[in-house]
Every structure is written in C-alpha cells, then in structure tokens.
Amino acid sequence: MLLSNVRKSTVRHGLLEKGDKVLVACSGGADSTALLLALLELSGEYDLRIAVAHFNHRLRRASDQDERFVIRLARKLGLPVYVKREDIRAWALKHGQNIEEAGRERRYRFLRDTASRVGARKIATGHTLTDQAETVLMRLLRGTGPRGLEGIAPCVDNLIIRPLIDIERREVEAYLRSSETPHREDESNRNLDYLRNRVRRRLIPYLEKSFDPKIVRHLGKLAEISREEEKVWAELCGAEEERSIIRRKGTVFLDARRLSALPPGSGRRLVRAFLAAVKGDLRRFTFRDVEAVRLLAEQKEAALPGNLFLSRERGLISVKEKTKPAPRFEHKWDGKKRLAIPALRLSFVGRIKKGMTKLPSYDDRRRALVDAGKINFPLLVRNCREGDRYRPLGSPGRKKLAEIMRSKGIPPGERGRHPVFISGEEIIWVSGLPIADDHRVTPTTRRVLVIERR
C-alpha cells in the first residue's frame, strides 16, 4: 500500500526522473527509514542511484547510536553513506538562533553540499502528510496568513523532494511492521514542552476523536489548495513587484510611494516579496513585522528579526547600513581661531566683518552669517541632544531640532554629525540648517560673525 502511494505521489508532484541520483536524508526514525526502503524498491522502475546522508546534531545522548544505526542500515543495503557531526547547541548560541532553527539550517546546508559533491540531483526527506497537518495547525496557533497555510512543499527548487507527503504516519508505521524493519525512536518526541509534540500527541488525536477522523487529510488538502492559489496570486502580483522592487548596484529598494498606494492585502504581499529579496527567505518574520514595513513613515526606521534594520528615505525603503553613532564631542570656541572637531574630522573657521558690505552669500550646508552683537563668547559647539529646540530663520516659532532635521531629510543616524553652535543657552546655528532667526543679520547689525566649514 505505501509503495503504491509513494509511486502516485512521485508522479503527481513530478518528484523523480529516470536516472536520478537521490540523496536520502535518514535520521534512523520511522519516516526516513521507510522512505529509504520505498525508494530502494522504486529504484528499478526509475533507474535510481541512491545514497544515504545522516546529520548528527549531537543534541541527545542517543545521537551517536542513531548515527551508528544509519551507517549499519546503509551498509546492509549496499548503499554509500555520508555523515556529519555538529554541535548544534553551540552553533545556535554563537549565532543567536534557537536550536530548532540552527539545526534545520545546518542540516540542509550539509544535505545541499553533499548532494553537490556526490552529484545527486535530488535530496529526499521523510516528511509525511501527518507532518503537513501538524505544520498547518502550528502556524494557525502561532498566527499566520494565507501563505503560511501552504505548509510543507512537496518539492523545493526541483532539488528537495518529499515522496511521503501524501501519506499518513500510521501507514508508514504499518509498512515498517509488515516488513519487520527496525528503526530508531527519538525520545524527545515524547517531550510535551515542544509545541509540535503537543499538537501531535494531544491536539490531532482530540480532533480525530471529537470532530473528524479524517482531519489530517483535510488539513493536507487545505495546504495543497493554499499552494495552488498562492501560485495564481504570485503571477497576478508579479508585475507590481517588478515595478516596485528596485535593484541598484547590489542594493534592493522598495518604492514606498507605490507601496502606500496599494490596498493592504497587496501591500503585504509586496513587503513579503521585498523581505525575501533582501534576506533570502521569510523565516522569523511575523505579521507585525510586515505591517511595520508597510506603514513605515518617511525618515523612520524599522527593526526586524535577525538584526535587520530598514529605513525609509526619499520614498525608498532599504536595508539601513550599520553606522557607528557619532562620537560625543564638546568644544568652546572664541569664533576667531580655527575650530577642529577631530571626532567628526571637520573644522570650522570664523571671522568678524564690520558693516554689511561685501558679505559672502548664505549657504546653510557650509556657511552661517550671524549678528555678532547678539552673541556671548565663547560659543559652545557640541552634538545635538534630546530636547534641543530653536527657531530657524523665517520660522514662526521654536521647533524641536530632531523634527527640523527629519523634515530636512537628515537620517537619524547622521544627526549627531551636525555640530550645534550655542551662545549662552541659545542655539545660533546647526551645520546644514538655517541660522537662528533671533540671531539673523539685519540692517542695524554692526558686526557679522561668518562661520565657514572647511
């Protein structure tokens, strides 16, 4: 029965081609052991060449026994076997990942690398229909959208295949009993601290008994329908993604203006496509993360899982480059000598001009002209600080410096690099911004302080 169903799934999902070399991921458990035997039985029909791969996570006392079991099984079947050991707990700690995430990442890296090295065109894993149902339920319990309901794909990148994906675990276990084939039991599968184990041992049996004995198949069908409809939506939204996701010199941008014009559902799809382009996958991103990007305001930043920081500037959302915060500095200046700010590698020069003739032009970025008669020397020159306020030239009133910088398009990470010039308690100029209105040059001004950036 199982072999017949594996054959049907293989044809239905287009998993194998004649002459394929298949690397079978085998943990020694029931599912992967049954998969290995079933593919071996099908090898004649498809002219398959089969090899075995085992990844030892070194998480359990019995891990080494599992490894030896798989090696003995492969040798008994006359198959080549490839093994790797790695301390996943240490890897997860070093890279800030949870153990499950780290284990999956390293296991699939080993499988892909091994397949490439030995010339395998397919990697077969033992995911079953019961695994599919568990995955869908877990995502529902944690919170998911339509795409999360796709569950486990039968085939990924035409490389990773799941020939047991339409077969329930009870059928796998019956197959092993009938063939009197031993397998390993993972004792951690009985630990109800893990959500998957609670879903497997409590929730699904309860749903089968109290609602529908076919709940596993219903959930598998839901996943299949979701995958099929996702393909349709992906095609429909593809044109918008091509227009809105921009690639320039190795950097990926998202057109925030086009994003803002889309309905929420379309906007979320566009954000997910952008995040996948930036990170490579959507793991660890939640609905809240997607919404944070979709609603990101101009000159604002969003912190996402995996130390990913995005910023929106000039209508484009992109990964924010990690910049060191501006070093703190504070200098007193008489307005005459050269003012060096080593922390910023900047310098300024000052000079006093009498009268209003032959004054240089205003240039907020590089030059300020202020009424020297209204200044108390020495000036204090420092970084901007929280709570700083002043009245820019022509403004009707005082404003927060942070708000002025935001309106001028100065990113938060750069604001500490704009020196603030202070007379007494009053800001007279911030490099890159207009001078203070209260210190402007007027027809009655007798002496003008000219500050220039060099």
Description:
- This protein has 454 residues and is an alpha+beta fold.
- It folds into 3 domains: 2-215, 3-Layer(aba) Sandwich (Rossmann fold), CATH 3.40.50; 249-319, Chorismate Mutase Domain, subunit A (Up-down Bundle), CATH 1.20.59.20; 330-453, Phenylalanyl-tRNA Synthetase, Chain B, domain 3 (3-Layer(bba) Sandwich), CATH 3.50.40.
- 39% of the residues lie in helices and 20% in strands.
- The chain contains 13 helices and 21 strands.
- It has helices spanning 2-13, 30-46, 63-76, 88-95, 99-118, 129-142, 169-178, 195-210, 215-244, 256-261, 264-279, 287-294, 401-407; strands at 21-25, 49-56, 81-85, 122-124, 155-156, 160-161, 245-248, 251-255, 301-304, 308-313, 316-319, 330-333, 339-341, 346-354, 367-371, 379-382, 389-390, 399-400, 420-423, 426-430, 447-453.
- The strands form 5 sheets. The chain has a 6-stranded mixed sheet, sandwiched between helices.
- The model has no long low-confidence stretch (mean pLDDT 92).
CATH class placement of the largest domain: Alpha Beta
Q: Please give the domain count.
A: 3
Strand residue content: 15-25%
- Largest sheet data: 6 strands, mixed
Number of beta-strand segments: 21
Tell me the name of the CATH homologous superfamily of the largest domain: HUPs
Task: Give the fraction of residues assigned to helices.
Answer: 25-40%
- Could you say which structural class the secondary elements and strand pairing correspond to? alpha+beta
Q: Which CATH architecture of the largest domain is right? A: 3-Layer(aba) Sandwich
Which strands sit side by side, in order, in the main sheet? Answer: 3-2-1-4-6-5
- The CATH topology of the largest domain corresponds to Rossmann fold
What Rg do the Cα atoms give?
Answer: 32 Å
**Gap between N and C termini:** 82 Å
Mean pLDDT: 92
